[in-house]
Amino acid sequence: DAGVIQSPRHEVTEMGQEVTLRCKPISGHNSLFWYRQTMMRGLELLIYFNNNVPIDDSGMPEDRFSAKMPNASFSTLKIQPSEPRDSAVYFCASRQGAGGNTEAFFGQGTRLTVV
Amino acid sequence: AQSVTQPDIHITVSEGASLELRCNYSYGATPYLFWYVQSPGQGLQLLLKYFSGDTLVQGIKGFEAEFKRSQSSFNLRKPSVHWSDAAEYFCAVGAHGNKLVFGAGTILRVKS
């Protein structure tokens, strides 16, 4: 398996534009996580899905952020409109099972810069 | 809700010296505990994990960690650090409902 695949790896956009980050989890994994990493706030859990259903989105910073998982092999994180403070590295991770006791595998991340 | 504290933001050790990175967690039940490592520009890689049983767990790259329930700790150790161990290390707790929460991370610098 190729692991968790995120695209794009880098994204530079202007303030106010819509940004869509994509994630393909490992086949057979039924849990998916979106994290944001910044120097100031570290690694923050934004949202996670079990079996394509959003379970906890309490980490989503505001309504400008939305995430979907239309099927088991694809998820998106959208920011609309984007702001400079959204600049960060966004990671997607997937794991098998929903009991909390399995390893989460991380993608390489998407480095987002909003200018 | 569960939380993780890594009290050391940066640690510098000499190559060949021993290492201990601290992690304290807060969770009402038996936690699932993990240590991950992140090299610059990369995603996170699992070093080791604890679910139950023997409280001393072995991981990859010569790392080990000890779960101490009485202290709510899960400290990471390595007897002899190599220059290639320089990276950022994250402790995480997994809990009911599959939520996985990370600490702020500890940046390890290795001096030769």
Question: What this model shows, in words?
Answer:
The complex is a heterodimer of chains A (115) and B (112). Helices cover 0% and strands 54% of the residues of chain A. Chain A has 115 residues and is an all-beta fold. The model of chain A has no long low-confidence stretch (mean pLDDT 93). Chain B has one domain (3-111): Immunoglobulin-like, CATH 2.60.40.10. Chain B has strands spanning 3-5, 10-14, 19-21, 24-26, 32-38, 44-50, 56-58, 64-68, 73-78, 87-94, 100-102, 106-111. Chain B starts with a strand and ends with a strand. The model of chain B has no long low-confidence stretch (mean pLDDT 92). Classes of the chains: A mainly beta (115), B mainly beta (112). The A-B interface holds A 4, 31, 33, 35, 42-43, 45, 48, 50, 55-56, 91, 93, 95, 97-101, 103-109 and B 32, 34, 36, 42-46, 49, 51, 90, 94-105.
How is the topology of this model organized?
The complex is a heterodimer of chains A (115) and B (112).
Chain A: E1 5-7, E2 10-13, E3 19-24, E4 31-38, E5 42-50, E6 53-56, E7 65-71, E8 74-79, E9 88-95, E10 105-106, E11 110-114
Chain B: E1 3-5, E2 10-14, E3 19-21, E4 24-26, E5 32-38, E6 44-50, E7 56-58, E8 64-68, E9 73-78, E10 87-94, E11 100-102, E12 106-111
Parallel strand pairs in B: 2-12
Antiparallel strand pairs in B: 1-4, 3-9, 5-6, 5-10, 7-8, 8-9, 10-11, 10-12
| Largest interface, C-beta within 8 A | A-B, 26 and 23 residues
Indicate the overall shape of chain B.
globular
- Say how many strands of chain B there are: 12
Amount of beta strand of chain B: over 45%
CATH superfamily of chain B: Immunoglobulins
Q: List the quaternary state of the chains.
A: heterodimer
β-strand amount of chain A: over 45%
Radius of gyration based on Cα positions of chain A: 13 Å
Unreliable parts of chain A:
none
Tell how many strands the DSSP assignment of chain A holds. Answer: 11
Structural class of chain A: mainly beta
Overall form of chain A: globular
CATH topology of chain B: Immunoglobulin-like
Number of helices of chain A: 0
Number of helices of chain B: 0
* Relative helix content of chain A: under 10%
Number of domains as seen in the coordinates of chain B? 1
* Cα distance spanning the termini of chain A: 36 Å
The helicity of chain B comes to under 10%
